[in-house]
Design a protein that fits this description.
alpha/beta, 6-stranded parallel β-sheet, elongated, 6 strands, Rossmann fold, tRNA (N(6)-L-threonylcarbamoyladenosine(37)-C(2))-methylthiotransferase activity, Methylthiotransferase_N
């Protein structure tokens, strides 16, 4: 009778495989080092930025803000609560609560002053689509938040995008 070690054959490694224990292990880098490396490459890779998201207003708006954060995180973006660490800002507000709208407009001005991309979302920009307050900013209407990743990518490239759906006619029919 054979020993069990003789019966069960060990898995065979390919001839060109490195010996066990010599695998490449990536070194952890700080956020600062990552930013420096990204800047040294001369271009930005989508999904490698940090996005600041601030939501004001009703509970539906907070749900939309969480949805947008989830969409961005799923594509590799970091969602940060640190204003200065952000590469872009998403500001989401509702018209129902007036104090929220006032805070929103103040924050939009502060975000513009940084020179970083600013994306506004929610029913404030949806309700006043032609406002000069949105000049130079990307805007997402309330029914287009599922396209937040596209808008962020374009904003980071220096483009401005305005996405709105104005009528029920724009919706695809049910066949």
């Amino acid at each position: 009778m054979d020993d069990i070690e003789d019966v069960v054959s060990a898995p065979r490694l390919p001839a060109d495989a490195p010996p066990p224990g010599t695998e490449v292990v990536p070194r952890k880098t700080s956020k600062r080092q990552a930013r420096q490396r990204k800047a040294a490459m001369g271009y930005d890779i989508p999904g490698t930025h940090s996005i600041y998201i601030k939501t004001y207003g009703c509970s539906h708006n907070f749900s939309d803000g969480e949805y947008m954060a989830g969409q961005l995180a799923a594509q590799g973006y970091g969602v940060t609560e640190e204003w200065d660490a952000a590469d872009a800002y998403i500001l989401n507000s509702c018209t129902v609560k007036n104090p929220s709208e006032a805070h929103f407009h103040t924050l939009v001005g502060a975000a513009k002053a940084t020179g970083k991309p600013v994306i506004v979302a929610g029913c404030v920009p949806q309700g006043d689509q032609k406002s000069s307050a949105w000049d130079g900013l990307s805007v997402i209407g309330v029914q287009q938040i599922d396209r937040v990743v596209e808008v962020v990518e374009e904003a980071l490239r220096g483009s401005t995008v305005h996405l709105f759906r104005n009528t029920k006619k724009d919706r695809p029919g049910l066949d």
